[in-house]
């Protein structure tokens, strides 16, 4: 039987600080979150996979253009995974604000092993890093609760004081 653990979004945000070294990263990008995090408006584009094709050169090698693939001109934009859920926008705003208030160094410093899970992290600016962490938290929250705030789970162990541990 599969067990499900649910944590509050604030708990996930705080937990993220300690778990940052074990999460995979695909290098999400953001356009300009400087204004969006202040006024509560966020980019509504979904991650929906890029439809832009990569250039592969001419049909007959040796003729025309260089056959070197070219990168897409626009970066992939990712929003929080919960954006499509009722209340998702409020969760995004809360997460951005919580990260800004409680973990400001997270956007200027890099975890020691960041290159092993996000090779592009050192090239991201402060706002792109903020976008990365919000996306990561939303991805974790999906597996913790399926974005259902009423989900809870009683652990099979007690805390250090002998009290039951209930994840909400």
Structure description:
- Mean pLDDT is 67; it is low at 1-7 and 17-58.
- By secondary structure, the chain is mainly alpha-helical.
- The chain has one domain (9-48, 73-167).
- Helix 1 packs across helix 3, helix 1 packs across helix 5 and helix 3 (88-102) crosses helix 5.
- It has helices at residues 9-19, 33-39, 88-102, 114-117, 126-145, and strands at residues 153-158, 164-167.
Identify the overall geometry: extended
> In total, how many beta strands?
2
Terminal-residue CA separation: 20 Å
Largest sheet, strands/sense/barrel: 2 strands, antiparallel
Write the layout of secondary structure elements.
Elements: H1 9-19, H2 33-39, H3 88-102, H4 114-117, H5 126-145, E1 153-158, E2 164-167
Helix pairs in contact: 1-3, 1-5, 3-5
Question: What's this model, at a glance?
Answer:
Helix content is about 35%, strand content about 5%. It has about 170 residues and is mainly alpha-helical.
Task: List descriptors.
168 residues, mainly alpha, 2 strands, 34% helix
């Amino acid at each position: 039987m599969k067990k499900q653990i649910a944590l509050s979004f604030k708990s996930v945000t705080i937990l993220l600080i300690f778990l940052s070294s074990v999460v995979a990263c695909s290098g999400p990008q953001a356009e300009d979150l400087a204004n969006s995090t202040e006024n509560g408006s966020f980019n509504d584009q979904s991650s929906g996979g890029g439809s832009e094709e990569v250039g592969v050169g001419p049909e007959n090698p040796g003729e025309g253009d260089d056959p070197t693939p070219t990168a897409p001109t626009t970066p992939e934009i990712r929003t929080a995974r919960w954006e499509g859920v009722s209340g998702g926008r409020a969760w995004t705003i809360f997460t951005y604000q919580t990260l800004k208030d409680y973990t400001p160094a997270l956007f200027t410093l890099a975890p020691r092993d960041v290159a092993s899970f996000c090779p592009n992290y050192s090239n991201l600016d402060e706002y792109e890093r903020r976008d990365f962490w919000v996306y990561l938290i939303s991805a974790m929250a999906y597996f913790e609760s399926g974005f259902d705030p009423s989900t809870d789970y009683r652990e099979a162990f007690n805390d250090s004081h002998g009290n039951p541990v209930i994840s909400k």
